[in-house]
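The instructor's notes for this session suggest beginning with a concrete chain rather than abstract definitions. Hand out the sequence below and ask the class to guess, before any prediction is shown, which regions might be ordered.
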Amino acid sequence: MPEFINIPEAKEIPSGKGATVEVNGARIAVYNLAGTYFAMDDTCPHVGAPLGGGWVEGETVACPMHGWEFEIKTGRCITVPRCAVSSYPMRIENGEVQICID
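After discussion, reveal the predicted structure:
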């Protein structure tokens, strides 16, 4: 059974923004889209820039270094489709934002 881990700092992310958090030693980009949270690997496959610090527009994020765009909900790279990043299930349980990175 998948294990969900609390991410207390996710509650601090304003709607329409993202941030980088550390979960079990891994850097994860977490986004708040109107109170629904999404997560993906934080490292852009192009040159390793942190996607959590990218520019969010609607349901996409642009890498802050070279502008590659990714779908926040899936991790699919719009700019270079073969360069997707992993996405992770999230939920809110008992008021806590949680992620599963099994």
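Then share the key points. Strands lie at 5-6, 17-23, 26-33, 36-41, 55-57, 60-62, 69-71, 87-88, 90-93, 96-99. The chain has a mean pLDDT of 96.
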